[in-house]
Design a protein that fits this description.
Blueprint: H1 2-11, H2 17-31, E1 40-44, H3 50-66, E2 74-78, H4 90-99, E3 109-113, H5 115-122, H6 127-130, E4 134-140, E5 142-143, E6 161-162, E7 172-178, H7 182-192, E8 198-203, H8 207-219, E9 227-232, H9 238-246, E10 252-256, H10 273-279, E11 285-287, E12 299-303, H11 309-321, E13 329-332, E14 335-340, H12 341-346, E15 359-361, H13 367-370, H14 372-395, H15 399-454, H16 458-489, E16 497-499, H17 501-510, E17 520-525, E18 533-535, H18 537-553, E19 558-566, E20 572-579, H19 609-620, E21 623-626, E22 634-641
Parallel strand pairs: 1-2, 1-3, 3-4, 4-7, 7-13, 8-9, 8-10, 10-11, 14-15, 17-19
Antiparallel strand pairs: 5-6, 12-14, 16-18, 19-20, 20-22, 21-22
Helix pairs in contact: 1-3, 2-3, 3-11, 4-5, 15-16, 16-19, 17-18, 18-19
Amino acid sequence: MRKNWRIRLFGCKIALQHLLLSLLLVLLPFGANAGQGKGVLVITSYNPDTQSMASTLSAFVDAFERLGSDPDKIVVESLNCLAYSEAKTWKERMAAILVKHTGDNEPGVVVVLGQEAWSAFLSQENPEYKKMPVICGMVSRNTILTPPDSVDLDRWMPESKDILKDFPDFNIVGGYAYQYRLYENIGLVKKLFPFTRELVFLSDNSFGGVNMQAFVKSEMAEYPEYSFSFLDGRVQSLVEVSGRLAGLSPHCVLLCGTWRVGPSDDFVLKSTTYVLRDANIDLPAFTISSIGLGHWVLGGYVPDYHNLGAELAQECLDYLQSGGKTVMGVRLVDGKYLFDGTRLEQLEIDETLLPAGSEIINVPETFWSEYKKVIIATGIVILFLIGGLTVAVIHIRRIRKYRRLLEAKSQELAKAKDVAEKASEMKTTFIQNINHEIRTPLNAIVGFAQVFANANVGPMKKYASIIERNSNDLLKLIGDVVELSNLDSGETDDTPQPVVMSELCSTALRQVESKINDDVEFVMIPLADDRPRMMYRHLVELVIVNLLHNAFKFTISGTVTLQCDILPGGKKMRVTVTDTGYGIPADKRDIIFERFTKLDEFKQGGGLGLAICRTVANRLGGVVTIDPDYTTGSKFIFVFPLLD
């Protein structure tokens, strides 16, 4: 059940991620064996980036099970951190979660996912919580504690802390942390824009934005040569930030932290980065977090964000299986230099000045790469014209000779066409005659076999049944060959007539009764309004007979259902034949409609029934398809237009 849930989680759209993660957070605790202890307690931020949180959590659970441990030992709790405005409550929410998992319920290890939850955990003062072994993920090396009740969140500037140095009283046994490396980005500014005198840092109204702002403020003390200021999305609107950007001097460089949440806790600002770009198109902008890459910023040294769920699961198991002896500590995730090729060209930056190993996205196309196909196509056309002209000059003298040869060949082809048409007529006549000649003795054999079968003499009845069944199979094969021959030659004689579908279906069923196994139940769902309707009776019946024959042949036990209904608009009828048989593999659903195709060589038949169905359906202006979503057996759908 848990595996099926994970498959559904990845198949949903991003718009459903909040709902699905909520379901996960509800379902996993109930399935967990919390009372046994020594399990894993996962605490998530449930931050706005729900997609990455959900994928990390799913990868964690998958790896935990794949590595041989019981996923029922995982308990998931969430702080439900929806907005920065509620940051003052996160510390108490974390304490309320931790107090439930003390004593007999104490986990073997705690995994904290997300910057908000991590800050709330490190803000705890209870020594019992501090001694809990904890592993972190989806966090940065720099962090801040949650705000006290007394501060104004719009103006609050906390102290930036380093999780590798500033929390010796916490039992941090492992985890992964990203780094915002201001040093490398300042190095890019000095190398690419040496005349810079002012730096401006942009952040938004989010806990992550405040965390980055605190980190940058502490780091900027190392660069007294620059005038430094902030664009703070907590108190400045898009209009105010754009106005400030427009007025920056030519000796200014913008550093971008994060820009997703506005002063009103809305999440529409991600698309407004184009507005900020257009406010000062010539302004050099670098990013420390990858925000704005691809359409606004020049580049920067950014964290290499990726899913670390499997690695966190491995660390948890290593710690638990070693009895707490395997302590890896927090490991830092490497970053990389990433640049936008289009912005490099717009700002006239020489790529040779970039650090070694830099990655470049949005590389502008050269004239050759942009028009490569056009140039090649034009060259081919020119060569073709030259070659054609050369060939024309060479062969112009032979045209009359070829004309005479073509006339002679045309006469030969006309004779061959006459011979082929006569041969086709002879084939059709032969098939029709041989059909009569074979059916007559076979009907006699079937009749006598039925007499023997009714005699109720043990072996004779058994042998008669075998004779009757095989004779019917042979009759069916001959009938299929004749029908295909008639369809190919266009000699099918059928005129529209009023038909009651329930009667037609009953007639079709009687033609395949010999194929029904004792353990198969037949269900027919007729039309609610079963009045006569105009159609080509013989052709429609031919399709239904072959679909029923196919269903009964491959259904050993279970149910075969025949359902008729009128599609909306009243212009088309749909006939559905559903069985609980072997089913048809997805890669075979196209070839089974080809002639002489058999998926089971041990089943009697010539592989013509479904080919007849599709040929007849096309002639009627309809279609025969397989329902790909039905997996209990096979479900064929026959749709054809009515003639009313």
